[in-house]
Amino acid sequence: MRRRARLAVTLIALVTVAGSFVGSTPRDPALAADPISEARAQKAAIERQLADQRVRLASLRVTSAALEDKLDVAEAQLAQITSEYERVVQLLGEVRQQVQEITEHLVQLRAEIEAMDARLATVAAEIALQTEELAAREALLEDHLRSAYEQSQTSLLELILSADSLDAATSQVGYLLTVSEQDQALADEIRAIREELSVKEATLRQGRSALREARVAASAEEAILRERKQQLEQLEKRTAQLKAAAERKQAEQESALNAALQAKGDVKRQIAANERAFAAASQLVNRLVAEQEALEEARRRQAEEEARRRRENDNRTSPTGFRWPEAAPRITQEWGPTSFALEPPYTYNGTYYPHFHGGIDMASGCGAPVMASKAGVVVASGQPLLPYDTGFGVIIDHGSDIQTWYWHLEARVIVRPGQVVNGGQVIGYEGSTGFSTGCHLHFAVNDHGVWENPRRYLP
């Protein structure tokens, strides 16, 4: 037992040292996004840890002998509590399963009771209606029989002799015979109704008996369910108590193991490992600083190149005087036929296309300034296509039946119809109004009523 305890102490010691090293350097939320600051903080934490560890380990070497007995006792108690905890957990699972089964059975039983209630109500209603119908049929038959009896007091010979003619007598005799056949049919119908009523009344009695049995069974199931739920609550309380006891014993055991580690472990080797970690942290700081400086230099050069390219694009114009409406934009959709289902149909140069994009979509970012592609007169602004399109846009006439359209702008108007604008003058800001899936500018050129490719006019 002592040998196994010493082996466990040694193994857990190594894990504990590694865990204390990792856990001793919590991140500062304010520096979470800065790897250099994190590395420097880690380096400082390791320095403090090394100093504290040297002082603490020096005072703990004398406690090794007394800890072995404490470990043995803690291990035995923990094993006993763990065994009881596992048994209670197993019982708890069994009770939970039984509670679930009883609950499902009760749901099914209540549904069957409701269905039987509804069915018996229907049968009772049918019995009431057919009882009324039977009474009416019996009254009608009684009237027919009474009339036949009264007529039977006159003999057939007297009926024939008193008739005006033989034909009239024959008709009266046939009438008496016809009434007799109707009464027979009515009697058959009454017998059928009585038989059907007898069957339905038996069904109603049996159904009500079964319904009483079902309700008794439901009450019994509910009593069992209440009992099982009480047992479940008791087991859950017992489980919580055992778990708390096991956690306390485990904490005591781990505390003893940590103390044994500190008292019996190889202090020099532990300190050496921490010093190697400190050296690695120092190297990491230096590498991260160098990488950050290189990254900042690359970003600076990239920003200078981007600014130069934007200046060139801002100043470039085509031979016809047009310029790009945004500075160095990213093209998201070209002009022309497309498979994008949301684009409308269009006929270009005599060819019909089911989906056609009449301009160029470009993006520089939400709120990026949009400039007039060429000098001209604003002929529409705001929401010119209401109520069919809620998008904000600007339309500029450049003369010679050429217009440029700027669409999906932010919902603010900064130029008005009739206003003269210069090429490069800001006329709006990139947005996502109208039929749009995100911030971008739809730039289109209409030349003599035809949506042409804007690239033919741009530099």
- Which CATH architecture of the domain at 88-253 would you pick? Orthogonal Bundle
Q: Count of DSSP E strands?
A: 14
Q: What's the SSE pattern?
A: HHHHHHEEEEEEEEEEEEEE
Q: Taking Cα atoms only, what radius of gyration do you get, to the nearest Å? A: 50 Å
N-end to C-end Cα span: 88 Å
Q: What fraction strand?
A: 5-15%
Query: Which structural class do the helices and strands define?
Result: alpha+beta
Mean pLDDT: 76
Q: What level of helicity do the residues show? A: 55-70%
Per CATH, the class of the domain at 88-253 reads Mainly Alpha
Count the DSSP helices: 6
- Assign the CATH topology of the domain at 88-253: Helix Hairpins
Write a brief structural summary.
The protein is α+β, with helices and mostly antiparallel strands.
Would you mind describing this structure in some detail?
- The protein has 6 helices and 14 strands.
- With 459 residues, it is α+β, with helices and mostly antiparallel strands.
- Strands 1, 6, 8, 9, 10, 11, 13 and 14 form an 8-stranded antiparallel beta sheet that branches. It has a two-stranded antiparallel sheet with strand order 2-5. A two-stranded antiparallel ribbon has the order 3-4.
- Helix 2 runs antiparallel to helix 6 (267-315) and helix 4 crosses helix 5.
- The longest helix is centred in the middle third of the chain and has 99 residues, at 166-264.
- It is flat.
- 12% of the residues are buried.
- Mean pLDDT is 76; it is low at 1-32.
